[in-house]
Design a protein that fits this description.
It is a single chain. The chain is α+β, with helices and mostly antiparallel strands and about 240 residues long. The protein is about 25% helix and about 20% strand. Helix 3 (about 100-105) packs across helix 6. The protein is globular and about 50 Å long. It starts with a helix and ends in a 9-residue tail after the last strand.
Length: about 240
């Protein structure tokens, strides 16, 4: 268990080296007027859809960056699930095109959000969505979803602050679709190629690891703003999984 936690703490280091060491990004929407205080983001994947219910109260800085990622049309399509450890986590967040990745690598890393007790080590439940990182103030664009009991003791590292959860919970169809992502032996080999994936994109990874599942795209379908103002987009897609 200790080994697994250390592994997640090292995720994303290769894409942080180019980040601006002199700056850290804080909350780009502190009052929630631009990105809202809760958002439902529907994601399509090669094994089926799922919805992320993001909550600003859990991790304000991480929430705002996640919404910014969702607004980038080049960020999500064809992202590979390049790290998937059964019973632990599934990780993604590297754009298919290296030039898109480079744009996010160049942005200031995120200042760490304050940990809240409900997600302390030992309470990190299945279906939480968080940024990956490599130590203090290290979050950029890598994301992971906790998928099993081995993730329970996450929450101790500075970056392990969930900003959302999979709608419907562990028994919902969305989470079941996530559990279908490929996690065979080749997935462990794909994880070792993270540096090449970040710098060379899908053009490098796909020929070597054609079995990896992928994110087809993500988009906001519903947002709650302060004062109970709500906005629903893609009304035809707003159905429970």
């Amino acid at each position: 268990m200790t080994v697994s936690v250390k592994l997640v703490a090292l995720v994303g280091v290769v894409s942080l080296v180019a980040a601006n060491e002199a700056e850290l990004a804080g909350d780009t929407d502190p009052d929630g007027s631009k990105y809202g205080i809760e958002a439902f983001v529907r994601c399509g994947s090669s094994t089926g859809d799922f919805v992320i219910h993001a909550k600003k109260a859990w991790a304000p800085i991480g929430y705002s960056r996640f919404i910014e990622l969702t607004q980038d049309p080049e960020y999500w399509p064809d992202q590979l699930i390049y790290r998937n450890i059964p019973g632990f986590i599934a990780q993604f967040g590297v754009p298919a095109k290296p030039e898109t990745t480079a744009q996010w690598v160049e942005k200031p890393r995120l200042r760490d959000d304050v940990h809240i007790d409900r997600f302390a080590s030992g309470k990190f439940r299945r279906g939480l969505v968080s940024f990956a990182g490599g130590g203090q103030d290290s979050r950029t664009h890598h994301l992971f979803i906790s998928t099993g009991a081995d993730a329970e003791f996450l929450g101790g590292a500075a970056h392990e602050t969930p900003f959302g959860t999979i709608e419907g919970g562990p028994d919902g169809q969305g989470f079941k679709n996530i559990l279908k992502w490929f996690n065979g032996a080749e997935a462990a080999e794909a994880e070792k190629e993270q540096h090449n994936y970040v710098s060379r994109g899908n053009g490098f990874m796909e020929p070597k690891f054609p079995m990896l599942d992928r994110i087809n795209g993500c988009y906001i379908i519903h947002t709650l703003y302060p004062g109970h103002k709500e906005e629903t987009l893609h009304q035809d897609k707003w159905d429970e999984l």
